[in-house]
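Action item from last meeting closed. Structure (77 res):
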């Protein structure tokens, strides 16, 4: 599977999720997107985003104020 990195550090809500959504739309079903963000609100935002859209939140972590989300694009309908 392919994996893409999206660095949205320094951006505030809702921009990290909006940019991730745009990036996911350009990826093939099943592809992974790793997002690096610094906005603490992104933790709740990405969880809600995945529940609403059907994309999978594969993993989440935080190190030194940088949040790392790994998302998997949902399969085509």
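Sequence:
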């Amino acid at each position: 599977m392919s994996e893409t990195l999206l660095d949205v550090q320094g951006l505030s809500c809702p921009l990290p999720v909006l940019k991730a959504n745009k990036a996911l739309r350009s990826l093939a079903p099943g592809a992974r997107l790793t997002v690096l963000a610094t906005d603490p609100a992104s933790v709740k935002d990405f969880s809600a985003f995945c529940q609403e859209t059907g994309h999978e939140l594969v993993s989440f972590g935080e190190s030194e104020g940088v949040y790392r989300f790994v998302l998997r694009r949902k399969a085509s309908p």
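Note appended to the action item: The chain has two helices and four strands.
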